[in-house]
Amino acid sequence: MDNRTVTRADLAESVYEQVGLSRNESSDLVEAVLEEISAALVGGDTVKISSFGSFSVREKGERIGRNPKTGIEVPILPRKVLVFRASHVLKDRINGEQG
Amino acid sequence: MTKSELIQRLAERNPHLYLRDVEKIVETIFEEITAALARGDRVELRGFGAFSIKKRDSRTGRNPRTGETVQVDAKSLPFFKTGKGLRERLNGED
So what's the ipTM on this one? Predict the structure, then answer.
């Protein structure tokens, strides 16, 4: 079986089939879901989706990095990174168990 | 924010939708992502991030307490890479 890439359009199509809204509205709602999650994370909130996983923001301090090509040291500024932790249900589904 | 809070917020912003439809939209999206990963597909949501799986071979592990060897089966783990747009928003770059 060939692996493929699922995109927003595929999610919108599923919403269209499952919920019975128009294609346009289905696509707008997929976007709205991603936007609500993004806004919560940008606001510093953790997002917990039961039986899927949780997204949280971690603050990284400044550290000294090195350009691997030139060997020159450069400071890596403090920044925020997003961390996703998959739930057990998701991990089990991926490993072929019924979750 | 939990899944039910996410559903509430979406329902408030979309008063023309039934709550059960908003619930179904949210469930459908996460179910589709889960099903895609279970098939071995990748899920790419530009500006948000991409979900993929990483395969881990079986290996012989060791119980660090007893030193006993144990067989660890091959498994796949889900992985998320934050998209450029969201990474920039988190760091106040837009």
Answer: 0.89
